[in-house]
Amino acid sequence: MANHNDIDIDRVAQLARVELTAEEKAKFSRQLGDVLHHITQLEQVDVTGVEPSAHAYPMVNVWADDVAQKGLSAEDALRNAPAKRDNMIAVPKVVE
Amino acid sequence: MADELYFQTIASLAERLGAKGLSSVELTKAVIARTQAVESQICAFNSFDVDDALAQAATSDARREAGEVLGPLDGIPVGLKDVIAVENQPLTASSKMLADFVSPYDATVTQNLKKAGAVLWGRLNLDEFAMGSSTENSATKKTTNPWDRTCVPGGSSGGSAAAVSAGQAIASLGSDTGGSIRQPAAFCGVVGMKPTYGLVSRYGLIAFASSLDQIGPFAHTVEDAAIMLQSIAGHDVKDSTSYRADIPDYRAELSQRKGPWKLGIPKEYFGEGLDPEVNAAVEKAIAYYREQGCEIKEVSMPHTKYCLDAYYVIATAEASSNLSRYDGIRYGHRSKDAKDVEDLYFKSRGEGFGEEVKRRIMLGTYVLSSGYYDAYYLRAQKVRTLIRQDFLKAYEEVDALITPTSPTPAFKLGAKADPLALYLCDIYTIGANLAGLPGISLPCGFASSGLPIGLQLIGQPFEEANLLSIAHSYEQAHEWRNAHPQI
Q1: How far is CA B193 from CA B202, B372, B449, B455, B484, in A?
Q2: Domains in chain B: ranges and CATH
Q3: At A38, which CATH number?
Q4: Which of A6, A15, A18, A62 has the most B C-beta neighbours within 10 Å, making it the best mutation to test the interface with B?
Q5: Model confidence pLDDT, tens digit, residues B10-27
Q6: ipTM (interface predicted TM)
Q7: Is the pTM of this model over 0.95?
């Protein structure tokens, strides 16, 4: 397991698409370092031959009957959009 | 029990409504008046809609007048944690990110409560996106503990627990990812239950960690919790992890199942950090079961000490993925200062999320990132398998486990500024989430400070009827359910 000091806060923030202030970066580096240090305990566990659990239950897929149902109206779907125009969500220019 | 309407149980109120000695409008008005009288001190609600609640109550009364009653919840005011969607009502997750969001549809549990005739009353405060153990991470307000307003109500479903404790709702729903129903129930002196993973639909619940999240009830009594569970349990095709199980009549089962049960005491739950008064109260509860002829067995769950670490890897990993949907484009907070689309994502998320949410997104992103995935995430998932095996092995010998719900009673507001210290509050509740098991917290006494203490019972998968019966047995032999805070 990696040394807990080497969390690259800028890289992780970039991956998470979240802007952090300089104070947040300093604070999170220290706090996440502490948490990751605690998590190194997991190294003590012998997991040889153990299957990982993605869920608490071994579950099979659930299938829904293919019945046509009414979805949200355009008005309802756009109700919470921060910006809209002509029944569409407006965003900053993507293609120059 | 105190005479005030707002402190009565669903079971007793349903009887009075049925005998026409009381109307739902009268009851709902009493709960609204109580809410307005104490809300400035308790701060449990993010929003409520008085007219809407009274209209629902009037509909319930009209239905009853016409000879139709939908069940024991018909006409009973029930609060919802503000992560459960109610059509045309605000849904904020106590986050700036969703400050102006209005839900376009109902969660399945909301639909279920409506079908049961419940009066939906208010959206209750929580730690932002259910991330926390004190409700102090709310971007909206700080909810207080009704037993001592200088203390936290617990979290993340702090508003749901405090509202029931303070008489601002007769019952409520919360969600539990690592203890977020059971721990605040313990802190506020009410009953709180997390059902088996998959028993209750998560459709319309704002996702935190999808393999751990489960909706469940808060109530004054185990019987009331059983009534609430009855209305929300069951298969839902809209939730791909919903389980097809036969749903028994939980309330009827309470009087059918009398034990004696075989109960396990996991020794790892009674170690360092456990408050002596909490320990003494739980020991007394164990003595009660022994006197009832239950076989009490010490069991060992050797991977208990790894629960917290496995949880914080898995829960944050899932959260970092779930919360990627908040991008400032389709709904939620959008930054006004962005240069381009990329910048819009970064700034909207940086501005919209609070500190703990950002911290967990960062941790989750890190443990999933290239080079660390195997060491953290995959390993945590394997440890999760071992933790589940510990429980299943214990259940070869016992029907349920008895533990404290939380190592301590409620702590002071602001007392746990360090994230790791706060994470340690959840050490007794997290195991049931990782293993997908049902757990219940019920009052088992008071500390010398006057704060309530919670007893946790963890049951076998989908054996809610048994778990509720074991809890009911203890509850009915004690008077804790009749104690209410002075506000």
Answers
A1: 15, 35, 25, 12, 19
A2: 5-264+396-482 (3.90.1300.10)
A3: 1.10.20
A4: A18
A5: 999 999 999 999 999 999
A6: 0.93
A7: yes
